[in-house]
Amino acid sequence: MKHLPLIITALYSLSFVPPALAAEWQPAAGPLKTRWAKDVSPAKALPEYPRPQMVRKDWLNLNGLWDIKLGDGTETRILVPFPVQSALSGVMKHTDRLTYRRSFEIPKAWSGQRVLLHFGAVDWEAKVSLNGKELGMHRGGYDAFSFDITDALKAEGAQEITVEVFDPTDLGGQPRGKQKLKPGSIMYTPVTGIWQTVWLEPVVPTHIEALRIVPDVDQGCVRIKVVAVAGKDDGNLLAGVEVYDGPAKIGSANGWAAEELVVKIPDAKLWSPESPFLYDLKVTASGQKLTPQADAVTSYFGMRKIALGKDDKGVTRMLLNGKPVFQVGPLDQGFWPDGIYTAPTDEALRFDIAETKRLGFNTTRKHVKIEPDRWYYWCDKLGLLVWQDMPCGNSYTDKPQPIDKPLFKAGLMSMVREHWNHPAIIMWVVFNENQGQHDTEALVAEVKALDPSRLVNNASGNDDKNCGDVIDKHSYPGPESPKPEANRAAVLGEFGGLGLPVDGHTWSKKTWGYEGTKNIEDLTSGYVKLLVKAWELNATAGLSAVIYTQLTDVETECNGLLTYDREVNKVIPERAAAANSGKQTNNLPSP
User: Fold this and answer.
1) CA neighbor of 430 nearest in space, from 392, 458, 409
2) Between 293 and 493, whose confidence is greater?
């Protein structure tokens, strides 16, 4: 069996685009672009397989040129999956309503199989139809959704898909993160419509719908549940799993689908930022016995454990694989000057994680945004611990709307279920500060019950509700440390914010930072001083983690270690990496 990451990166789906149609598209003249924008075209719009943890070999990418009609009646073409407000969409206009339309043909080799239509994410409400037949409606700007379109397909020829979108941004009560109709300061350009890959795949009638993979380091095993859909007359479903260390199969298990299958992992290679080892996984599902019609997917997992525990001085710490690890990372907003929510290429997506690692960080906080699966794949592959925020609603808005509490809860639970197999994710952050905060204690309890294998942060910053696994403070520039508790570790969820605009690499002439610096040398010196103090607080005050604001500039906010276009590193990398790794601190007394 080949190593899974090589399989994943090879699974492209490139569709032929007539030259005349390709010539119709040009990126809009946005205020700033990245080096990767030149690699985007109608024939190459995020062509990589979008779901690395449940891979099938046959699929069809529907990214590319679509027809759209904006809310004002304007008709044009758009490059999917870039949101309509982005330069890479070719449109770069705001609208709260739009209709997408395109045609496609089903490959003849898919005959006799069910066909699934997948959307990575559409912000916010999407009504999907095929050949004039409504398939359904989805509400939620950050979670994936799918339809079985088999019964709506024509027998042959072109199939027409229509997606009607509505997105009120901050005029609604739905989760929206940092999006605002009138962006400025810490709020940014809104995103409307399709912003992640749209794709088709054929499946046999009895097929795998989802996986739940839980590493159990203490017992030296991995626990797997296979959720499968039954075809006609298939009865109870069987599932099988095989675990690989490179080409060598090291374990397997068979049983009923939806029941826990346990595979022993002898002498497990533990996943960590220093050694992000991934085991490969092959999963099958079928009717009463495994047959040539069994569905098969490939996946992967990492053996790692995140927990709370006491250090040798009795201080509550966050433990990775049983040992205290000082988590040092940046705040990562996940915005791009040319794609807004959507990275221009997979290489660009990987770059942010690789650069975070190069700067000596072992952690990142994905700030009130949920990323495409491939972002988490690169964190798994390269070894970066992730704090994953739930996007908030009703924050910093001119006309506050009532929070849609059921929708927030549904989105929170979907976030956990969709991403809980990624070893990189070690903590769920339910709320950021008091932004849209409600029913905190109950939501934290539900997240813990749904995923007991990870830590939960009830509210990063203000309005701590004395629940969850950490007590989290924000301090600008800081750093400071809350006091560790008997059952909660102390973390600094945001600090720093040293600002430096770089001529030729800013979104606009007007910029700001929490605390200004003069040049790269000044910013580097200030940054190193902050991190030396952070490591002192780790040793003397029991601080378990720090999150620096922030990885990149975003629009008018120039608090980034990198410029918004990722062209200029605003700190000297070697010095920043040494500070982040604790190599510039002295011997310090223990708390």
Assistant:
1) 458
2) 493
Check: CB of residue 278 under 8 Å from CB of residue 303.
Answer: no
| Distance spanning both ends of the chain, measured CA to CA | 50
Residues 66-101 pLDDT 10s? 999 999 999 999 999 999 999 999 999 999 999 999
Residues 6+ positions from 45 with CB-CB distance below 8 Å: 63, 64, 79, 80, 81, 82
Dihedral of the alpha carbons of 124, 125, 130, 134, in degrees to the nearest 10: 170
Instruction: Give 21's pLDDT tier (boundaries 50, 70, 90).
Output: low
108 in the same domain as 77: yes
- Specify whether 374 is located in the same domain as 338: yes
Could you tell me the two tokens for 17? 């685009």
Q: Where are the alpha helices (DSSP H) in 340-404?
A: 346-358, 373-382
Tell me, yes or no, whether 307 lies in a domain.
no
Range of the structural domain that residue 225 is part of: 207-293
Cβ contacts of residue 174 below 8 Å, gap of 6+?
A: 124, 139, 140, 141, 168, 393, 404, 407, 408
Cα–Cα distance between 317 and 324 in angstroms, integer?
Answer: 6
Same domain, 189 and 248: no
d(CA 218, CA 225): 19
Is there a domain that residue 586 lies in? Answer: no
Q: Is the pTM of this model over 0.70?
A: yes
The DSSP secondary-structure symbol of 382 reads: H
